[in-house]
């Protein structure tokens, strides 16, 4: 199989780079300066164990990739960019006839829980991936994967889940390739409870982005309240999610963030979006997912509502991470009406 990584940022480039380094075919799809750097000098991938320069083939869009019947499309863009990416790739022809949407599997290697539904509207065969992969992309052509001994824990499963927990052969092949490349790749009967659990974990992304990396007591309170709101909203909606104990049991100390060159990872994916000045952020599909469920099921979600709004403002205004204090954010939460 060849893995076509659509969105070769922190997560996508780490997955594609490590697969390539393990002897699997991969293509990194990127844009702008990042694509130019990949094309000119390869992918510079740094892990706690080594620094690599990998000559992974790069493309700047679907028109530059001749799709084959054995390809697996890996969607690794942020959720706010999913519709554009899915529409760009769905109608692309595949060697031997047919289109990507009808012939190729698409794997959503993304945070949030909306991407699989978006993909299934367009693609016949969709897989979800719960991504636990601490990585950083701040410089064109360069990605740092900070965890060890495994680079990430990537739960994989067909979407929707097969009936009666049946084993999916392609999911098993993908998992085997990932495990050969330095990842954990469990195959749960249903991947979505893992993704909903990860959603709760990602509710702090916007907080970290706007307030910076901090252990401030007010920040801890805001994070706890955001996750409590998320859990109440999921419970009210009757949505299953894996508990913290089960997550810790499976992950153990296999994916531990380590210092690289004496420096620890600066911030998560939303922090990186602000640091790079991308103009958009994923909060609408993380905190916004909780807000949506809360509104639909009568659960108040004031912390997530403020985080969604403020993070979006920061991205649109291209403000830097950490320009707001946790205390200022708490004031905004306190200023919301009761209903």
Give descriptors for this structure.
single chain; 339 residues; alpha/beta; Rossmann fold; N-(1-d-carboxylethyl)-l-norvaline Dehydrogenase, domain 2; 2 domains; eight-stranded mixed sheet; 14 helices; globular
Your description of this structure?
Helix content is 42%, strand content 19%. The radius of gyration is 19 Å and the shape is globular. The chain is built from 14 helices and 14 strands. The chain has an eight-stranded mixed β-sheet, sandwiched between helices. Strands 4-3-10-9 form a four-stranded mixed β-sheet. It has a two-stranded antiparallel ribbon with strand order 11-14. It folds into two domains: 2-190, 3-Layer(aba) Sandwich (Rossmann fold), CATH 3.40.50.720; 195-240 and 265-334, N-(1-d-carboxylethyl)-l-norvaline Dehydrogenase, domain 2 (Orthogonal Bundle). α8 packs parallel to α11. The chain has 339 residues and is α/β, with parallel strands linked by helices. The model has no long low-confidence stretch (mean pLDDT 96). It has helices at residues 10-21, 32-41, 82-90, 100-103, 115-120, 169-180, 192-202, 205-211, 217-237, 244-251, 269-276, 287-297, 302-316, 326-334, and strands at residues 2-6, 25-29, 43-46, 51-54, 58-59, 71-75, 105-109, 125-132, 135-139, 142-145, 147-149, 152-159, 183-184, 255-257.
Describe, in short, the structure shown.
By secondary structure, the protein is of the alpha/beta class. The protein has helices spanning 10-21, 32-41, 82-90, 100-103, 115-120, 169-180, 192-202, 205-211, 217-237, 244-251, 269-276, 287-297, 302-316, 326-334; strands at residues 2-6, 25-29, 43-46, 51-54, 58-59, 71-75, 105-109, 125-132, 135-139, 142-145, 147-149, 152-159, 183-184, 255-257.
């Amino acid at each position: 199989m060849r893995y076509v990584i659509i969105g070769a940022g922190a997560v996508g480039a780490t997955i594609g780079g490590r697969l390539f380094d393990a002897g699997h075919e991969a293509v990194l799809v990127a844009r702008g300066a990042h694509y130019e750097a990949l094309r000119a000098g390869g992918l510079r991938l740094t892990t706690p164990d080594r620094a690599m320069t990998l000559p992974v083939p790069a493309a700047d869009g679907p028109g530059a990739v001749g799709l084959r019947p054995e390809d697996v499309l890996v969607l690794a863009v942020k959720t706010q960019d999913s519709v554009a990416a899915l529409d760009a790739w769905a109608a692309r022809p595949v060697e031997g006839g047919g289109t990507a949407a009808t012939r190729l599997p698409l794997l959503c290697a993304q945070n949030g829980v909306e991407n699989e539904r978006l993909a299934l509207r367009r693609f016949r065969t969709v897989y979800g991936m719960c991504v636990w992969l601490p990585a950083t992309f701040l410089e064109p052509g360069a990605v740092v994967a900070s965890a060890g001994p495994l680079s990430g824990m990537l739960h994989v499963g067909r979407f929707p889940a097969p009936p009666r927990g049946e084993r999916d052969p392609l999911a098993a092949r993908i998992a085997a390739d990932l495990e050969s490349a330095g990842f954990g790749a469990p195959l749960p009967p249903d991947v979505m409870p893992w993704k909903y659990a990860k959603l709760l974990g990602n509710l702090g992304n916007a907080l970290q982005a706007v307030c910076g990396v901090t252990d401030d007591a007010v920040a801890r309170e805001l994070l706890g309240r955001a996750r409590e709101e998320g859990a109440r909203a999921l419970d009210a909606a009757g949505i299953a999610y894996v508990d913290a104990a089960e997550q810790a049991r499976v992950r153990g100390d296999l994916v531990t963030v380590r210092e690289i060159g004496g420096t620890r990872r600066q911030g998560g994916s939303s922090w990186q979006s602000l640091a790079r000045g991308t103009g958009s952020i994923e909060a609408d599909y993380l905190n916004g997912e909780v807000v949506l469920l809360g509104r639909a099921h009568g659960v108040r979600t004031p912390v997530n509502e403020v985080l969604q709004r403020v993070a979006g403002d920061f991205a649109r205004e291209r403000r830097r991470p950490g320009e707001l204090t946790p205390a200022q954010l708490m004031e905004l939460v306190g200023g919301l009406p009761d209903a």
